[in-house]
Amino acid sequence: MDRGTTLELTAADGHKTPAYVAAPHDPARGAVVILPEIFGVNSHIRAVADGYAEAGYCAIALATFERVRPGVELAYTPHDIHVGVGLKAAVEALPPPGVMPDIQAAIDHAGAHGKVGVIGFCWGGLLTWRAACTLRNLSAAVVYYGGGMTRPEEIARMPQVPVMAHLSDRDASVPLSGVDEFKKAHGEVEVHLYSADHGFNCDQREAWNAASAQQARARTLAFLGAHLS
Question: What's the pTM?
């Protein structure tokens, strides 16, 4: 059962975006903005937010499809994947800066709880990388299998905050050749490679790898503790 609530955030251009917010029981040790996969703020992403709240952070999961379709919450069937891919394409086709103002609004709201990190999964991981390179008031970023982040135009970006990346060795969205190029260009990024498939952190998908997910979470919490304290 969800422990959080939903609020509405307003970007600099006036666009309003809902977000699921899970608060810790004790005073927050910082905050994390969570950027979902192509499936929206679904039960898995809310559970991820709840987990970071249990670890002591105010967690804000942002509905990143809102500019093209409100209220998206998908599962993991082939049909859902098809829908999610189409919605991602629609968002990526928006005029710049796309959804980045919405992410900035979430970061700014989260700042009331201390230093802020961004954690993103798949497409949300790509958005997290962009946030680390372009947005304000951010102290750390954690990317999980950021689809497309090893394209040349993304590798050309320069992060402004510490970044950790959890990638896998069997991921067509983030091929190993691209991972090698990314690592060569960004020695400052802490890259961890797992023997797992794309989506290994999601326990609602066949790709779920419990050992890799647990190890990645432990590394993430240590990283957040170092940079958000």
Answer: 0.97
Structure-token pair, residue 130: 């962009």
* Collapsed DSSP state (helix, strand, coil) of residue 76: coil
Q: How far is CA 197 from its chain centroid?
A: 17
Task: Give yes or no for a contact between 157 and 129, defined as CB atoms under 8 angstroms apart.
Answer: yes
The rounded distance, in Å, linking the Cα atoms of 226 and 157 is 24
pLDDT value, residue 14: 98
| For residue 101, cis peptide bond before it (omega within 30 degrees of 0) | no
Tell me, letter by letter, the H, E, C secondary structure of 106-155: HHHHHHHHCCEEEEEECHHHHHHHHHHHHCCCCCEEEEECCCCCCCHHHH
Give all domains of the chain, ordered by start, each with its CATH number: 5-228 (3.40.50.1820)
Using CA atoms, how far apart are residues 198 and 127, in angstroms rounded to an integer? 17
**CA nearest neighbour of 146 among 128, 163, 160:** 128
125 pLDDT band, cuts 50/70/90, is very high
Tokens 């993103």 — which residue? 120
Question: Taking the CB of residue 134, how many other CB atoms lie within 10 A of it?
Answer: 16
Give residues with Cβ within 8 angstroms of 146, minimum separation 6.
120, 122, 123, 124, 125, 126, 128, 129, 165, 167, 174
Is residue 38 within 8 A of residue 88, CB to CB? The reply is yes
